[in-house]
Structure formats: C-alpha cells, structure tokens
Design goal:
homodimer; alpha+beta; 60s Ribosomal Protein L30, Chain: A; Phosphoribosyl-aminoimidazole Synthetase, Chain A, domain 2; eight-stranded mixed sheet; six-stranded mixed sheet; 8 helices; disordered C terminus
Chain lengths: 316, 316
C-alpha cells in the first residue's frame, strides 16, 4: 500500500481530467468546498475509522469510539472555519458484535452530534471483518471565506491552539500496558475546535489553517506544500502538554487543536474562545536547499523535521 | 448484529431528538435531502462496499469494484430524481494489496465519475483488514421535487424499469464455480438509471420511487412502510431477465433499475430513456390482515412475499 500522501497524489493526477466548476476546492484540504447557493459554500469531509488502526476495542470504550469518529470530521470543518450542518455514518461491524457495543457507540456519536447541533441525516450499515466507521460531515461557510491550507506566505507566523502531544503520551502509556484511566480522557473524548475555527475565520485572523490530526510535523508540511512555502519551528516555543515530550508534541497526532498562519503584523489574542494561542514558528520562502519544515533548537541549530505521521493503533 | 432494518429503526429512535430544520428528509430514503439554496435541495447518499460482503476479489476485477462502488451511490441519486454533483471516496485497503489493484479500482471509479460528470472531490484512505470503500455522492434536485419513498397511495400502479434478476443469476453461477465471463458484465458493470430517474422526476410521473439495490421484495417493502400502504405484485407481469428465474427477479438485488408508483390514470410511456417500463402490481391500503407485500400467481392465488434480502457474497 502506498503512503497516504503518495496515494492522494496519484488519485489527484488521475482525477485532474474530471474537474468541475461546481467543486471550488477538491482533494488536498481539510474539506472539499462546493458551490452551494449565492453567498454560501458547502464543506464536505469524510473520515474513516478502522478498528485496530484508529482505535482498539480493548482500550477505547464504545462510546469514545463513537465520539472520536465524529470529532475527526467536526475538526476538519473547524479547520476551514465552517459551521457543521449535518453528518452521515456508514458503519460495518463483525457479525456477533454485541448490541450493547453498537448502542454505546451510537450514543457516543449522537451525544457529540447533539452538542454540536449536527443532525445525523443518513448513512449505511454492513457486516464487515472489523468495526469500520466512515463519517461524513457537511458544513457551510460564507462564499470565498473558507480558510484553506494554501494561503500561507513567507514571513507569516505559525500559531497553534492548546497544548500538543497529550494524545500521543496517553497512547504510549496504553502501549506499555497501563490500563486506560482518567488521564486518557483527552485522547478518548477529544474536543474539536469548531468555535475557535469559526472565530478565526470570522475575524479574518489566519492566512491558512489545518487541524492537528496527523501530528504537527505532518500537518504543517501539508500547509507548506499547499502554500508552496517552507517553515521553521522553534522547539522551545512548542506548547507541550503535561506528561508529554517535545517529540510527542511534534509528531503525535489526534490533538485536534488547530494550526494556523497569520501575517507577522497581525494583532493576535492570547486566547481564542478559551484556547491559548501560541506562536511556534515562521513561514519561509520555499527553497530547494532546506527541508519543508525545519526545527530550530534552543541554541539556534536547525535540523530538518521529519514528517513522522501519527502512530497507528496497530498491534504489531 | 441486528438486521439492517432493525438497526436503522434503533438509530432513528435515538436520533429523533437531534432533528434539525436543515434536514428536509433524514434517514429512511435513498438519499438524505438537505436545504441548500433558494430553489434547490441537496441530496446525500453513502454506500459501504465491503470485500467478501459486496464483492469478492477472486470474482470481481478491481475495475468493476470501483465501478460498482460509485454505481450504487449514483443509483440512489437516480431514485430521488436528482442530478449527481460530486462524489467522495473513503478507501481502506490491506497492507500488501498490489498497487495495480488500487490503480485499476480507481480507474473503474473515475471512468464512471467522468461519464456521469460527477467529480471526485475528496475522501480518506487507511489501512484495513479487507478492502472497504465508502462512497458518498452528492446531488441536487429542485426544491420540494425529490421523489420520495413515502408518496405511494392506495390504487397507484407499481412499475419497474428494465429486467430483473440478472445480477442474481450471475451471482448464482459464480457460486457454483463458473468462471466470470462475458455474461457477468451486467453484474460487474451495472448502469445506474440517472437519466431515467431524472425524467421521471421532471415529468412528474411518479408518486414514489426507489432503486432496486436490495431486491424487489425488500425495496418494495421499503416503499410500503414509508408510505403506510401495502402492495400486490402479479407474478406473470414481473420482467424476468434472460437466464434468471422469477425467484431471482423477486429477491435478487443489485439490478440497479428503479421501481416507482404512479396514479392509476397516469399515461405511462412504454420506455423511458430507452429503458422498458413494466406495470407489475398495485398499491393497496395498509391492513393488519395482509402482508406488506403479497404475490399473486397466475391462477390468482395470493401469498405473502417474504422480504428476502440481497444475497451477500459471503464465503460461508
């Protein structure tokens, strides 16, 4: 199997011929952007959640799996500055899975749906070899106002909300055999930054935005590629979550905070809707001589920041 | 695992509280219908395709799997009388699946997408235990004009397009070990009735419509439940595909024709966009005394028509 980026590139090349004027922005951002009506665009995002890849039944309560499945899509809508409008759930489950598990999953999903006022409007079900949920979230955004990944320009500062690495730290402790406990809550019930993303869009704070689902190193590289720029991160500025390491903050995924870029002169609040905002680096011109993203340590030494994706929950 | 109908009922009950005015029609039709703009509604349909449930890698060429995945969603749009607008593909594949398989799958999918002018606008990828594709198709329909499942009234006649049972006949021959050959084409590359559905909606021919994906007995029962009516089918009127049996025409799925109901007095063309149209039965008032759907044989004897769903490709 190809790595996801390569796969997406391949599909993009194959897709190029079938472009349509209705698709404002297709593959390559947090959501697709479609023309809807005068003044409004439609956001669409789909997220696959596969047992033993994105969650493990022996670690994650069914309710948390339902919660997380929808959280991922809501986080994508947040990353465009959109308002969630409706969601769809396609669910494959192994024959013999307990009805209790399914009910708890659905409860976790629907509790989230109610809280974010995003009605479950449809879906599909099937038997399958493992639990597999594909969640679609639709959202809306005023025409031309979606915050894309492609707007970062050299000189822009790079910001993140919240603290990073918490989910990766929990994952590591689960891997070492620790029983899931209260501290795992952030990983089990992440809170998508829908309000934060909406405010960033309304106040026109950001030049580009993405949610931190795959990990800072990977997600910032997405911004750089889509914007045709490079970036430098200052190690000591990265807001590391309690109990996490810098490494986990840089590469651990599933924090569901947002990363955005803004003009260097822009006035930046210290908090947006209660979430702390931290400047962690700067956008640079693209250059063949430097890595897409580099990390500057405390003494000013720069090293390429490898795109180490999010650690799957795979058993091997 | 619950049968799909029961699962959907359960989710519906859980969902009821999260209803929203933006969702014109939620779970329980071929597509969800959402408010879009003045004069236009948005159709959304999602379809899961799971290896060894909906297809088998040793039977179906990768290109046919890609084709079928998208055909299912297009058929749902057709069944509402909508125009397809964009599609999304979430794809999980086992590690080690050949790149050739994936490329062929994507080619089959995109050939279909181009032909129906429905751009692939996004999606997701993951590793997984089997090949699993979840396809979302968005479409549009003039406001209030979607042909729902719920509009059938006692006295209406029941029509189907095309011939039925062909896909089931192919499936049966594959199960007996016959090598897939030219005759399997209809099952491998079904043609969704997008143009037919669109014309039925434009000409206001139908009171209710559904696509025949699960099988006539199941799909007609959906219409009856959503409309609060019963139905009788005349066995000798059912258009049986060459090589298929009446049984296969009644219960075999994946024909991707459309079934619709129309007022008894309505003038009905013999063909719509080249597809033959056949009257096969009549809508009756709902009564506790009769089955939801009954079958009347050649001598006028009526028996309840069991909802025998579509035969999964499961190996057991």
């Amino acid at each position: 199997m190809l790595p996801e980026r390569e796969f997406i590139e391949r599909v993009r090349r194959l897709v190029r011929r079938s472009k349509s004027s209705r698709v404002v922005r297709g593959i390559g951002d947090d959501c697709a952007v479609l023309q809807a009506s005068a003044g409004l665009e439609l956001l669409v995002t789909t997220d696959l959640c596969v047992e033993d890849v994105h969650f493990r039944r022996d670690w994650h309560p069914a309710r948390s799996v339902g919660h997380r499945c929808l959280a991922r899509g809501l986080s994508d809508i947040a990353a465009m500055g959109g308002d969630p409008a409706a969601c769809f759930l396609s669910l494959a489950v192994p024959r013999g899975l307990s009805q209790r598990w399914i009910d708890e999953f659905v409860r976790g999903f629907l509790a989230m749906a109610r809280r974010f006022r995003v009605p479950l409007a449809g879906g599909d079900t099937s038997s399958g070899p493992k639990i597999i949920a594909d969640v679609v979230v639709l959202g809306t955004v005023p025409e031309g106002k979606a915050v894309l990944r492609s707007g970062a320009r050299p000189g822009d500062l790079i910001y993140v909300t919240g603290k990073l690495g918490g989910a990766a730290a929990v994952l590591k402790s689960l891997k070492t055999g620790r029983k899931p406990g209260a501290a795992t809550r952030g990983n089990f019930y992440p809170e998508p930054r829908v309000k934060v993303g909406g405010l960033i869009r309304q106040k026109q704070i950001a030049t580009a935005m993405i949610d931190l689902s795959d990990g800072l190193s990977v997600d910032l590289a997405h911004i750089c590629r889509e914007s045709g720029v490079s970036a430098v991160i200052y190690a000591k500025k990265v807001p590391v979550a309690r109990g996490a390491t810098l490494e986990q903050a840089l590469h651990g995924g599933e924090d569901y905070e947002v990363l955005f870029t803004a003009r260097a002169g822009a006035k930046m609040p210290t908090k947006i809707s209660g979430s702390p905002v931290t400047a962690i680096g700067r956008i640079l011109p693209r250059s063949a001589k430097r890595a897409v993203v580099t990390l500057r340590d405390a003494v000013g030494k720069e090293t390429p920041l490898k795109e180490q994706g999010w650690q799957h929950f795979a058993r091997k």
